[in-house]
Each structure stands twice: as structure tokens, then as C-alpha cells.
Amino acid sequence: MTLPLIVYRSLRQHALSTLITAGGIALAAGLLMTVWRVKVESQAAFTQTSAGFDAVLGARGSKLQLVLNAIFHLEASPGNVAAADAEAIRRHPMVKAAIPIAVGDNLRGFRLVGTVPELFSSVEFAPGRKYVLEAGGRLFSIDAREAVAGSFAAQRLGLRVGSVFRPFHGLNFDPKAEHAEEFTVTGILAPTNTPADRVIWLPLRGIQTMAGHDPKAATDVSAVLLQLRTPTAGFMLDMLYNKQGNRLTFAFPVGAIMAELFGKISWFDRVLELVAYLVALVAAGSVLASIYNSMSARQRDLAILRALGARRRTVFGAVLAEAAVIGALGALAGLAVHFALYVGVAGLIRAQTGVVLTPWAFHAVLVVCPLAMTALCALGGIVPALKAYRTPVAETIAPVS
Amino acid sequence: MLAVQQLRKSFVGPDGARVPVVAVPEFQLAAGEQLALRGESGSGKTTFLHLIAGILAADAGRVEIDGVEMTALGEPARDRLRAEKLGYIFQTFNLLQGFTVLENVLLGMSFGPRGADRAHARAVLERVGLGHRLGHFPRQLSTGQQQRVAVARALANRPRLVLADEPTGNLDTRHAGEALALIREVCREQGAGLLLVSHDEGVLSQFTLRRDFAELNQAVREARP
Questions:
Q1: Distance CA A307, CA B125 (A)
Q2: pLDDT, tens digit, for every residue of B168-219?
Q3: Which residue, of A88, A89, B92, B204, is most buried by count of CB atoms within 10 Å of its CB?
Q4: Contacts of A313 in chain B (CB under 8 A)
Q5: Is pLDDT above 80 for B222?
Q6: CATH of residue B143
Q7: Domain containing B161: what range?
Q8: Contacts of B129 (CB under 8 A, 6+ apart)
């Protein structure tokens, strides 16, 4: 009971500095855990998101841009694919399914994507999961001005079955660029937790023939999403389109291309990590400073304990334990800070990309970081603990007569 | 019970020279005996008590408590012996301000061999008349009550010897008399020896056994011109 009592009373006696120091540690630990998890989990989410496709065929250009545009519905299209090329890949014996998409319009910032009904009827966007329409809805008809809205887009834009809207030209919202055509929402997709949730889907012809679009390109598509019969097919098609051909780009495999992106921005991750580590170090330093500064005030107490028979190692341990307890309290509060931050960041990522991070999922960093912070703070307590260890008892408790 | 032989202690003075503070050739106290040492301020009597308690290490000489030679022990063993065999009452009480009355006594006990015995701590505090103040903090008590906590803390571990350094120096005459009577009575009840130092003649006159520390301490005589 001795050590816990000494630590508890000391923390109570210096409640304000304890709270402030623990608060600093909570922020540092929360930041550290959030940076770590966002980095690891967003990377995993982006590289695992393929919308159910193995590859994308698009205009000659960057594979990354093609994947971002066709799978994540971000970035501009690198160009068009002629109808003949789209038809050729669809008929290729190594291709299991080919879904053409056409982009170029938006509804108040949410992307309109033209496609074919097969995307919803035959494609699994994740293993065992197909797109499902919410009750009361139906798919668009291929020749009608109808639309199916992704759940997030529908929620943000207030779209319901029966809603009518006019698209805006371009990928970025410009109120002056409104098209004359009106589209009616025939269905809302159930949430898929993929970028598809941020899209309003139209029939391919609907977007290709919209007034203002180049009539010469009325049969072109922006990209063709592909499911291949075998993995080796990807390497053969890569050879065909990327090495032997020079008009089109074949992006395969989707996950590896996204991993390349994260590889390119890994320096940014490292900077963030470094900042988080520095914050953690500063927090541990604050424990050292806080306890060290209070040492002159508590040296008399420590000398009294020594006079009562406490050994040097007991007072050393008491100060060290106090530092560790402050660290542990801060680290626990850091979990709350982390979850609050992570919910915010996950919401932002979802709103911007449609990729969903799950705040309540377990990650080893949620255990390792609080333990490491506690250990780091205990380490920060070594200097004041040494001061406690060296407390001169006789001089401190009473003047020598 | 307590035997001191050729005990010497000096400190480094402002001019860098060593100043002898304690030089006691011989001093003894039998078990359960109560003795008062008369000493003026600066006579080295607190240092003498610190040497006996093992709070300070002697330059030379022997201090034997209950058959154990304190001066031959390393610091951890001296700490253990102090917690086991000695009780110390300070002039300024030296209570731990952040701890309750009961916790002050329990902490004093926790370093000893029997550990923190809550029931015994309560009983000792009852004995000194503070059974109704267990949860109070020292700042919430009167000076006299604080001194009684210090007495309870010193005696809670059933020490063989109690060292009291000007224990009534901060109390008025009435409370000083009560405190002294309490210390002597409780020591007697527990069979503990008592070595008390004071410069107060009123306190010293209460003791049958009295010695003048100035005569005992050769360092004082050596320092005289």
C-alpha cells in the first residue's frame, strides 16, 4: 500500500500540474495513434479497393490517373477510348467482363458516371457482395434520362426516388454550366462503403449524348473496367496494350498501382510520423519538467519518508511510478483523443474519396502506443527520481544545530 | 539498549576546513530508560540524534542499538534498522502535509517489519486522543494535535528507542507539559527507551536522568577558546 499511497497523494497534491501534463500526453498519444492508423489503414483501404475489377483500360497516359478516375472517381479522365477499342476488349477471350464508363459531368460536385446495367446486375464490388438498391427503387433504363444515386451522394444532395435534377458540365461544380436535360432518380443504392457511394450513375448513352458534349465522341467511353479470366491474362494484356501498342493504357493490377502511389508519398508519411514522435518526446519531456519542478517543494516530504525508514530506492521508485502513472493516465485519455480525431479524419476521407475507415476496429497501435507512452514518461521520471534518490535527509528535515 | 563509543562527526566549514561537531567518547542508555540531554542551540545535539538514528553516517566510532552495531551497516540496512527499532519525534513535527492523520501513522509503520497495520494505527491514535481526527490533514489540526500525531507515528511501530528532538519547542507551556507527559507515558507503556534533547529547563526538570550535552560532547569543549 505504501507506494500506491505515496503516488496517489502526490498526484492529488499536484493535481493541476498532473492534469495539464496528462493532457499534453493525451494529445501526443492521440495524435501518434491517429497518424499511425490513418497511414496504415488508409493505405490498406485504398490498395484493397478495386470495385471488383482486375484492370482498367483507358486512354494513353498515367496508369495511376486512370485508376483514380475509373475506380476511385477522383482526378480527370486521361482521355477517351473509342467504341471499337471498348468493343474489342469486351470480346477478348481472356476478359470475363468489361464495363464501360463515361465521365465528364457532375451534380453539385458529385460525379455523374455513365455505365451499363451489368455493373449492378453481375459485378461483385467485394467478394460475395453485389450492388443492392434500396426498397422502392429500380435500375435506370438504358435509353431513358434516369439515374441511380450512390448512398452518400443521395444523402448529401437530398436525392430520393422520383427526384429530378439537371447535371452540370465538367467534373467540378460550376453553377453556370448547367445542362438542359433533366434526369429522374429511379433508385438509391444501399451503402457499399466504397467510392461508388459518392457517384450518381446514369445510362452510358445518357451521358454520351448530353447536349454540349462533342457529337464526334458520342460513342466513346472514358474507360473500360475489366474482370479477367486468369491473373496471367493481365500480364499478356499489359504486353499487348502497354508495350506493343501506343494508343491505350492498360492499368493492372489495380491494387499494385495504388500501392505505387503510397510508395511515392511515403516521405510525407515519414514526416508525419516524425512530427508525431517529436510530439511524444516533448510530452515525455513535460513529465520530466513537471515533476522536476515540483521536486524542491516535495523534497521535504521525501526526506521525512527517508527519516521514517524509507530506503532510497523506495523514494526513487515512488517518483518513477508517479511519472509512469501520469503517462498511463495521459495515454488512456489519449485513446479518447484518438477516437475523436479518427472519427473526424475518417469522415473527411469518406467525404472526399468514398473510402471508409472504421474507427472502432482494433489495431495493435492502440495497445503499443499507450504502453510506449507510459514507458517513455517513466523514462522521463528518471531524472527527478534521481534527485529524490539523492535527497540529503539531515539537511532537509532540520537545520543542523 | 543504546551504546555510543568514540563517536565523531565533522562538517566542512565555509573556509573549507573541517569543523568537528560531535565527539562523544561514551554514552549509554538502558532499555526502557528515559533520559534528557540539555543542550543549547548549535551544540550538536541534533547531529548526535541523527548519528544515532543512522540518518547521518559517522566519521568514526560506534553506535550500537539493541545489540546491532548501526555504524557498521550500509545505508539500506541502517534505514531498515531505523524503521524497526527507532521512533523519531521532531521539533517541527515533520508531518506529511498531503497525507491524512491515519496515513501519516500508517506510512511510518509501513517501512517497519510489521508493515502498515491499520487497526494498530487507529489504536495508537485513539491512545493519543485523535481517534476522531483520522481523516483530517495536518493543516486542519492545532499545533498540539499535530504534535500528538508525531508522537503516534513515532510509537506506532513499537520501537525500542524513541529519539525526541526539542519535541515541545513549538508548543506553549500548557501544551508542552501535556505533550511531554504523553510522550513519557506512552514510551513507558510500550517499554521503549526515550532520549530527549532540549534546552528548556521546564522540560529537563521533569526527568530524573539528565545530562549536559556540552559536557558529553568534546567537540564543543575543543571549539571553546
A1: 20
A2: 887 788 778 888 998 999 899 989 999 999 988 889 999 999 999 988 998 8
A3: A89
A4: 76
A5: no
A6: 3.40.50.300
A7: 2-223
A8: B148
